Amino acid sequence: MAQFNQLIGTIGVVAFLSACASTTPPAVDLGTTPPDVTLAADSLAFDAVGTVSFAASWNAATDDETPAASIVYELWIVAGATTTAFDELAEVKAGTRLATGANLLATDVTSITTNNNLAAGTAYLVNILAKDAADNEDVYEPQVLTTETVNNAVTFDPTVAALMDRAPAQAGCRGCHTAGGAIPVFFEANGTTFDLTTAAQEVSALVIPGNYSASTFYRRIAGTVGSRMPPVGNYMSAEEVESIRIWIADGAPLN
Ligand code: HEC
User: Fold this and answer.
1) Whole-angstrom distance, CA of residue 210 vs CA of residue 222
2) What is the SS3 assignment for 145?
3) Do 166 and 141 share a domain, yes or no?
4) In the chain, N or C terminus with fewer CB closer than 10 Å?
5) 116 plus 52 within the same structural domain
6) If you measure from the C-alpha of residue 120 to the centroid of ligand 1, how many angstroms do you get, rounded to a whole number?
7) How far is the CA of 180 from the centre of ligand 1 (A)?
8) Does some domain include residue 25?
9) Residue 33: inside a domain
10) Domain boundary among 102, 122, 146
11) How many Å apart are CA 126 and CA 56, to the nearest integer?
């Protein structure tokens, strides 16, 4: 009997040790209920809609097990305009998950600016997918987004070039952003030639064709980021700022 007990004891120890050696952690029940989107479902809204990009924002979902900071959000999109065709999980996942920056698969995010990969003048259905830590998913109410059309209403030369080629007192940029002056250089030493999309890119994202809201050039004259340009003299008028916005939204052609 003593021998039998010893044997059982050995088996017990071996079983215990092998259980410890296993790398699988004990299962934690994260639930099967998807994030609750009922209060947030209608909150998806758009801003800064350009020809190739837009910004989206929405209210956070809640979950019975996953803390708010760990809920993952994805932005899904499909060409079309009938919202009833994009309000089921399966329909949404048959669309395209839009990436922005490094990715869009992010936790605790309730706003995003998309990449510059849309078509101009096109209607899209957009929806938000919320996912909890156990991969339970649900979708919001889809919204229709229509990108701006390209109408080439503003030409670079003379309109944009002429607006820049003025003294600060006239809300222009000449006098500072010339070679040897403030960076970025818009005006070369020999005259008024400048290329906002390539040569003057000492700073990143000076002009992103089609995406005015992410273009530093637009943001500085509109005063939405950093110190508003020009730092002395007069700001550009609302109409002048708007014409530059249209020019960038149209793809910033050097026409
Ligand atoms: C009186 C001088 C002056 C004038 C005029 C001026 N700027 Fe500037 N600008 C500066 C200086 C100095 C900086 C660098 C400091 C800073 O970032 O604010 C700068 C920075 C900038 C930047 C930021 C680049 C970055 O690093 O993000 C942009 C874009 C810009 N200017 C555009 C303009 C435009 C467009 C005009 C004409 C409407 C203009 N500036 C007129 C002096 C000037």
Assistant:
1) 16
2) strand
3) no
4) N
5) yes
6) 30
7) 13
8) no
9) no
10) 146
11) 9
Distance (Å, whole) CA 194 – CA 42 = 45
Which residues' Cβ are closer than 6 Å to ligand 1? 164, 168, 172-173, 175-177, 182, 184, 203, 206, 216-217, 220-221, 226-227, 229-232, 236
Q: Which DSSP letter does residue 74 get?
A: E
How many structural domains comprise the chain?
A: 2
For ligand 1, atom 18, the nearest C-alpha belongs to: 227
Q: What is the pTM of this model?
A: 0.67
164 domain-assigned: yes
CA distances from 244 to 10, 13, 89, 102, 156 (A): 81, 76, 40, 28, 9
Q: Is residue 226 part of a domain?
A: yes
Atom of ligand 1 nearest to the CA of 167: 5
Q: Please tell me the residue having the least CA distance from ligand 1 atom 4.
A: 230
